[in-house]
């Protein structure tokens, strides 16, 4: 059994990487990061450092040509501003449904690409793709491609299309971010190497949706986000 972890350089995917290494051994694990036209490459820089930390191979794929037509606020060329409110506040104001940081079918696109990569680099093995989706991202249907239903459906399609050679594993699909961080703290994940903020720069903004969720997840575990210490 081999594993390829979708690694953005953030909290969720890095926790998945730590879990995969713990369960399968680093010799059976690889990481892959996707450039899809993000406004900054801070997370990708972090993903490289994290792969080095865990001493696993690190692949990089460029899918930006597919998403260059999107006006999602996270992407280069977008005319939309990133909203500096929690996801809960955004959903309360606009109702349930897509938030403006939703990248069109991003998880579906990445899972499909990595399924192909997995069969290519591990042709003689069964491959598990680790995805860091969790229940908080799916709440209020903010990110439809993070829901348990979506993950299960994609997993079936990928298994069918790869002769059962590739499996999708989303270990935190039914957990919230605080529960995910608890697992990571128990595994001594180097969260100081990660980056989640939608804005670039050297210090997290602390006010975008993902920053707010990250800060809260550490607080609920009686911990402080290492990026905010000092």
UniProtKB/TrEMBL annotation:
Enzyme class of the recorded protein, top EC level: ligase
Recorded metabolic or biological pathway in which this protein acts: Purine metabolism; 7-cyano-7-deazaguanine biosynthesis
Required co-factors: Zn(2+)
Domain of life where this protein originates: Bacteria
Binding site for Zn(2+): 197, 205, 208, 211
Statement: the UniProt record of this protein carries the keyword Methyltransferase: no
Cofactor note: Binds 1 zinc ion per subunit.
GO MF, one annotated term: ligase activity, forming carbon-nitrogen bonds
Catalytic activity: 7-carboxy-7-carbaguanine + NH4(+) + 2 ATP = 7-cyano-7-carbaguanine + 2 AMP + 2 diphosphate + 2 H(+)
UniProt xrefs under SUPFAM superfamilies: Adenine nucleotide alpha hydrolases-like
Keyword Ligase attached: yes
Pfam families reported for this sequence: QueC
Keywords on record: ATP-binding, Ligase, Metal-binding, Nucleotide-binding, Queuosine biosynthesis, Zinc
Entry's EC annotation: 6.3.4.20
Binding residues for ATP: 7-17
GO biological process: tRNA queuosine(34) biosynthetic process
Function according to Swiss-Prot or TrEMBL: Catalyzes the ATP-dependent conversion of 7-carboxy-7-deazaguanine (CDG) to 7-cyano-7-deazaguanine (preQ(0)).
Subunit structure: Homodimer.
Family statement drawn from the similarity comment of this UniProt entry: Belongs to the QueC family.
Protein name: 7-cyano-7-deazaguanine synthase
Species for this entry: Veillonella criceti
Annotated gene: queC
